[in-house]
Structures are given as structure tokens and as C-alpha cells.
Amino acid sequence: LVEAAAGGDRAAIGRLISLVERGGETARQVGRLTFPNSGGAYTVGITGPPGAGKSTLTDRLITEARRDGHLIGVLAIDPTSPYTGGAILGDRVRMQGHALDEGVFIRSMATRGHLGGLALAAPEAIRVLASAGIGLVLLETVGVGQVEVEVAGAADTTVVVVNPGWGDAVQANKAGLLEIADIFVINKADRPGAAETRRDLDNMLDMSMTMGAWRPPVVATVASTGDGIAELWAAIGRHREHLEGSGELEARRQRRLGDELSEVLVRRLEARVHELDDGKAYQQVREGVVDRSIDPYSASDELLGRLGL
Ligand SMILES: Nc1nc2c(ncn2[C@@H]2O[C@H](COP(=O)(O)OP(=O)(O)OP(=O)(O)O)[C@@H](O)[C@H]2O)c(=O)[nH]1
Ligand SMILES: [Mg+2]
User: Fold this and answer.
1) CA of 56, closest atom in ligand 1
2) Reading across the β-sheet that carries 218-221, which strands appear in turn?
3) How far apart are CA 280 and CA 276, in angstroms?
4) Residue 115 scores a pLDDT above 60
């Protein structure tokens, strides 16, 4: 399958992503095979609250990127509904204009059985696309919570999409958004309140910026008409140049891979502990901890001891 995908076989790419989604030993095997040839894709994350216009924006960005000759992969990820699977595609991905374009591969993704959820499945799926020769991956993630922030962390450039009057939708996690945003988009700028939202964002950025750091540009768009899309595409290009020119791209990617390793280690170790005695060992020790008869450190000593560690 990996060979077929590298030769441009779209069905093979789709099957590989399904395997990654499902998790387990087969997913790990896919990961081993795609890893060596997966360094070539640039990833742009598009994240924001439900209905902000992420898919409409993505659709427009596909058009811009195709003009530059990129082969494009699109992953639409919904951490809030792990079981809808392919259904998201119909409801949430508005990219039908590219359905017949052989140079665009569009896919929605849900967690299914993947250990560690989408935060770990997303980078693996990106590597599937990269190993198939896709040079640009657009990653749409719904929501503004912690998991979404983690998933968005798989991107090289992260675009945070808000709407006029955005405050309420993201109040709880403004700091998290600020941390991940490389570019802010105020989409639906045809609606009232766009100017206030820009002022809000600028104030927030003024307070948080450190000298010399990249300051996320704020781009106003109307995705439904295409207004502002050229500016957004240009801002993405500038951010990419900034990352490449400063060495930050390589540093970010190294950091991500390092984080991924520790996450994989923790998840696999946890899984092995949960498997002890069909889950009874973990359950028993856990009960001891929660009723305070044993402390968490001694409890973990006991479980790790049973694994010979
Ligand atoms: N007025 C206006 N409507 C827009 C704009 N962009 C998108 N829409 C509409 O907003 C709705 C949601 O757009 P989507 O692109 O599906 O938004 P999304 O963020 O992908 O939504 P989810 O994936 O469900 O979270 C659709 O009806 C779009 O036509 C815009 O700039 N202005
Ligand atoms: Mg969408």
C-alpha cells in the first residue's frame, strides 16, 4: 500500500489513513514504513470554533495552492465527535469544487481506536500524505479546546479562524489560541463587528508579544466570496519564509517529533499496564489510590514492577 500510495494511488492513500485511524500494530507498521519519506510536506493548520468558515476557507486556499502547482492533501479532523467518521465529510467539508481534481486528496478523520487519539493519529496521517509525494497538507480542526490545540500543534503554520463577535466562543481558551496562532483570520468580515474584533485581537497581541518574535498578522476574509483569500495565502507564504529563514521550522519539527516520542512512550506503557490481568491489576491499584490506602508513587511502582520495570 505504501508503494502504491507513493505512485499516486489515491485509494491506497485512503486505506493507509484508515489503518492509521484504527491504531494498533498495523498502524505502527504503517508509521514505520512512511516515516523515512515523510519530511517533504508543509502543513498548514486551520482551526477555530464550529461554523467559523474553516472549510470554506480551506476550499479557497486549495484553489490558491493549486495555482502554484502544489499537490494538496486535506485532513478534516473533528476531535469533538470521535464516532461520526466519514459522515463529517458530507456535513463539514465544503470542498466539492475540487472533488474531480486528481491533485487534491481530501479526507476526514476521527479517532476510532487510535491510542492517544487524534493528537497522535494526525501526525501519522500527515506522514502518509507526505510519503505519497504531497507537498502541502491543510489540516482543518474544529474547536478551541485543549485537544484541538494539541492537534493544531501538528502544523508548521497555524491559522486561527474567528468571527466578528468572537469573544464568547473562545473566551475560555484565548491564551491557548494565542499560543498556537501564527496567523489570525477574522472570517465573515461581511458581518457587523469585524473592526472591533480586529481591535480586540490587536490589543491581545500587543500585550503578549515579545520583541523580535513573529507577530501574527490579522487578516480579514469573506470566505464565501473569496475576499481576503489572496492576502491570507500571502501571509501563509510569509510565515513559511520566516520559519525557514530563521531555522525555526527545523526547530519546531524537531520539538514536535521529540514530543511525539514521549507521548507514544507514555501511551504504550499505559496500555501495557491496563492489559495486566485483563485490567484487574490496574483497577485494583487505582481503587487503593482513590480511597487513599496507597499513594500514587508506590502504586505505580507496584504496577511497573509487574511489568518487570
Ligand atoms: N456570511 C458569511 N458566511 C460564511 C463565510 N464563510 C463561510 N460562511 C458560511 O458559514 C457556514 C459555515 O461554513 P464552514 O466553512 O462549513 O465552516 P466550518 O468552520 O468548516 O464549520 P465546521 O467544520 O462545521 O466547524 C456556511 O454556511 C458558509 O457558507 C463568510 O465569510 N461570510
Ligand atoms: Mg468544516
Assistant:
1) 15
2) 104-109, 72-77, 136-142, 42-48, 157-162, 183-187, 218-221
3) 7
4) no
Side-chain half-sphere exposure of 223, counting CA atoms within 13 A: 24
Burial 23-43 (b: 16+ CB within 10 A, else e): beeebbebbebbeeebeebbb
β partners of residue 47? 141, 160
What residue type is 218 in one-letter code? Answer: V
| Per-residue model confidence as pLDDT tens digits over 22-55 | 888 899 999 999 999 999 999 999 998 888 999 9
Least distant ligand from the CA of 49: 1
Per-residue confidence band for 84, with pLDDT thresholds at 50, 70 and 90: very low
pLDDT over 80 at 95, yes or no: no
CB 57, CB 236: distance < 8 Å: no
In the structure, what pLDDT confidence band is assigned to residue 91 with cuts at 50, 70 and 90? Answer: very low
Task: Count CB neighbours of 108 within 10 A.
Answer: 21
Which ligand neighbours the alpha carbon of 142 most closely?
1
The residue assigned the cell 456535513 is 91
Residue 114 CA to residue 111 CA, distance in Å, equals 6
H or E element, residue 30:
helix 24-34
Min mean pLDDT across 111-120, 213-222, 257-266 is at 111-120
Closest atom of ligand 1 to CA, residue 58:
15
Residue 290 CA to ligand 2 centre (angstroms): 41
Q: Is 54 in the pocket of ligand 1 (CB under 6 A)?
A: yes
Ligand 1 centroid, distance to 223 Cα (angstroms):
8
223 lines ligand 1 (CB under 6 A): yes
| Cell numbers describing residue 141 | 480542526
